[in-house]
Write a structure and sequence with these properties.
Number of helices: 8
Number of strands: 5
Strand order of the largest sheet: 1-4-5
Structural class: mainly alpha
Strand content: 5-15%
Distance between the termini: 61 Å
Radius of gyration: 20 Å
Length: 280
Amino acid sequence: MFFSALSFPKIDPVIFSVGPVKLHWYGLGYVIGILFAWWYGKRLLKTLPLWKNGIGPMNPEKLDDFVIWAAIGVVIGGRLGEVLLYRPDYYFANSSKIIAVWDGGMSFHGGFIGTILVIILFAVKNKIGIWTMFDTIAAGVPVGLGIVRICNFINSELLGRVTNVPWAVHFPNGGLDMAGNLLARHPSQLYEAALEGPVLFFILAFLIFRLKALKKQGLIAGSFTLIYGLARFFVEFFREPSISYVTGKWLTMGMALSLPMVISGLGIIFWASRPNRQRS
C-alpha cells in the first residue's frame, strides 16, 4: 500500500574533491569525533575536582599521543567488524573494497573492540590506569557516534524498516513496492544519532559533573557500555537487519552483539560502585 512520506534530502556524500582525492562526510565525521574525544578528555583531566582526592590520574598531554592509536583502533576494528561479521561474502568476493572505508561500512562493535585493545596497550605502555583511560575516552565518544550516524543517513545506508509513520523517508535505494513506488522507511540512522549521540553524552556528563562519577574508576566506562547497548538494542527494532536474523524472527545480529555490552556494562557498574573496592 502506498502512503506519503518525506523525500530523502539530496546531500552529496562527497563534500568536495580535488582530482582523485575526495573528502566524504563519513570520513569527516570520524575525524571530528576523534578530535572531540581528545579535546574533551583533556578538559576532564585538567578539571582536578572531578577526580578522586583532586588528583589527575595522568598528564593530559598523554592524550596527544593517543589520538593516532585511537584512529587506528577505530578504523581497523570497525572495518574488520563490518567485513567479518556483516558482509564477509561480499568483501571476500570484492577484496579491493575492504580498504574503501570512505564509502561507508564500519561496524561499531568491531570499532569498540579495536578501541578497547589500543586503550589497554597504550595504558600499559605508558603506565596509566586502564580504567582511567576507559573513563576518559568513553566520556567524549558519543559526540562522534552521533555525527557518524548522521553521515550514515546522508549516505543512505543502514536503512530502517518499512513503515507508515508520518516521518518515514523515501530512501532512493530503499526498494519499491508492488506498484513501483519507493518504500517508506524509518529514518533509523537518526534515531541512533539521537540516542547514541546527545542523549548518551548528556547522561554521562550528568554522571561526571553532578554525581562525580570519575571518582570511581570504571563507572563511566560501564555506564557508556550499558547505555549504548540498550540504545542499539532498541533501535534494532526499527532498523532493517544488515544480515539475516540470528534466531527466530526478531533477534538480529546487532541485538546479539549488543546483549554482551548490556551485561558487561551492568557488571562493570556494579564492580565500580562497590564502596570497598581497591583502586589502583
